[in-house]
Amino acid sequence: MQxxxxxxxxxxxxxxxxxxxxGVVVNKEKNGEITVAGNKDYPVNxxxxxxxxxxxxxxxNDKSDRLLYPQMRYNKSMPLQKVSWDDALDRTVAVxxxxxxxxxxxxxxxxxxxxxxTEEYYVVNKLMKGFIGSNNIDTxxxxxxxxxxxxxxxxxxxxxxxxxxDDIELADCFYVTGANPAWCxxxxxxxxxxxxxxxxxxxxxxxxxxxxxTCSLADLHLQINPGTDITLNHAIGRLLIENGDIDxxxxxxHAEGFEQYSALVFKRTLAESAxxxxxxxxxxxxxxxxxxxxxxxxxxWTMGLNQSTVGVNKNLSLINLNLITGHVGKPGSGPLxxxxxxxAMGGREVGGLANLLPAHRDLKNPLHxxxxxxFWRGKNIKPEPGLTATEMFEALDDGRLKAIWIMxxxxxxxxxxxxxxxxxxxxxxxxxxxxxxxxxxxxxxxxVILPAAAWAEKEGTMTNSERRISxxxxxxxxxxxxxxxxxxxxxxxxxxxYPGFDFKNSEEIYAEHVxxxxxxxxxxxxxxxxxxxxxxxxxxxxxxxKPAGTERLFADKKFYTPSQKAIIHAVPDAFFSERTDxxxxxxxxxxxxxDQWHTMSKTGKVNKLNQHLKESFIEINPYDAAGLKLxxxxxxxxxxxxxxxRVKAKLTTQIxxxxxxxxxxxxxxxxxxxxxxxxxxxNAVDPISKEPDFKYCAVHIAKYKKP
Length: 707
Ligand code: SF4
What we know:
The protein is an alpha/beta fold. It folds into four domains: 9-61, Phosphorylase Kinase, domain 1 (2-Layer Sandwich), CATH 3.30.200.210; 71-144 and 343-538, Rossmann fold; 146-338, Dimethylsulfoxide Reductase, domain 2 (3-Layer(aba) Sandwich), CATH 3.40.228; 586-703, Barwin-like endoglucanases (Beta Barrel). It is 31% helix and 16% strand. It is built from 24 helices and 26 strands. Strands 5-4-16-15-14-6-7 form a seven-stranded mixed beta sheet, sandwiched between helices. The relative contact order is 0.16. The mean pLDDT is 95. Iron/sulfur cluster binds next to helix 1 and helix 7.
């Protein structure tokens, strides 16, 4: 980072990568460029930033890939041409109105992003559910957090992360499962590392089919077979019960479902569970011992549990461990789902998914729908959920959906079974792409391209994984004719003739969102931009809340369920992922690497970050590689029932025989899309959360031979 010059203006913001939500100070130099430093006063990171955050300014200063003006074409065979904002939006309005009139409101859809600011989420959700009259508004958060959202609701009554990051320093046992926070949530993990360094007796259990950097801090690594998380969690639950390490008072007075749970977990012997999971009975016993001895116990997880055909059940089986031990609603304890995106939580607050309503209201509840409809003075809101992320592209493919508006996301790298999504966009009658960069593959399919402002070029708010709401300053002007996403949506809504979109600025949008949360579980009626400009706060934040908000939920052991008791769900340990066979004998799992983020549209611009791992690869165990005559650096062909990937082989004992790993980040590079992991992944989803199964599909592997 450069040292700020004497003509520097400094403003605060929040890192726009992961859900840790680190505070940054952005220095604006006289030449218009910015530099970034960690905010020492910010409670999340106390000045620390990871490799991605510390290099954030490069992504903003480099304008070489920016979309600068709206573009449009009148038919698919024409080239895109520069047009005015009015022309681009007028045409979009005309096409949307035609489809809505001819085929109904469910013929159009918005596909947005966990990177949108809360205000952006709010207006697009209001536009779609309240005025177009369809619930077809979903975001890429469906791909990462929707299983956790559903599980929180089922277990605690609402989508509520109960604890705060400061609980890390109060815990003495961590159960980290389906996550590699050392690489993917680094600053949070540094807090765990520092806590362990100061208190060597605290215990860290890591559950992962791979040996990751997170494992280097672990007292115990349970290298389970992919997909067997529920069996493992149940076995540990059984051991906790057998050892008497459960909280009888909490179970009796504050929870329901223990009898069914207990009966279920005793159905499998420990030996059976150990065999299914591929770990030893001794290690399971050790895990139960560490948890049983803990005064403060935190479970921490992310995509390894969420991205599964049984993602909700995996989440529930984990939250059960907190509930039976009474480790929720007290200092140093609780379930902590780590969000991959910076504002996935803010999107959930405004109800920005196809099955949600604002402020945790229930789409199925007629009173809740009426409340929102009256507040917006819009159309009746439909009770049926709209199309979710993967369903939108399936509906474009089979013709049910005619038009899609893609906002701030890159589905042709990030969606599973991406060939289907590609085919769907080819068939789509009308595609709008609202984007910052000229790189995403979706642009090739766009009928209208709308240039959007990037991070630091607009103001707004975000919420991190611990319910902390922060204000992001606008620091510089967007280039060319690019506009903030909320303004684009409001301009479109006004041209559609809808009332309620004449906000003067983001602050007014936020104020409306705040009013809609009153008397709900996330009540932030004490909040406005002035408060947030002073400091970040954790919701709920009522008028008389403490200055920092609410650090911990459920301190009174009253949950949001009708009985006010938490629910222990006895979930089966069956899983329904695509199975291996003779044709496709390997299990593929996908994930992140340390210095890239999502589809690399930002991190891929930073030379320093590209040095870590320069190209995609497949991790394979040397035992498997020997059988395939595959050597380190050879090109491997990974094929599934859906497509093919060709990348170099990386031989490592850090992955189990029979399992291979592909990073998720690479898409089409110079016309070559064979690095793209999602050519082979499966679009099977969890039946409740509709989250796809990125962590388990059957593949065939062979050494590439030149034709
Ligand atoms: Fe940004 Fe996440 Fe790194 Fe913090 S940990 S600097 S929020 S990428």
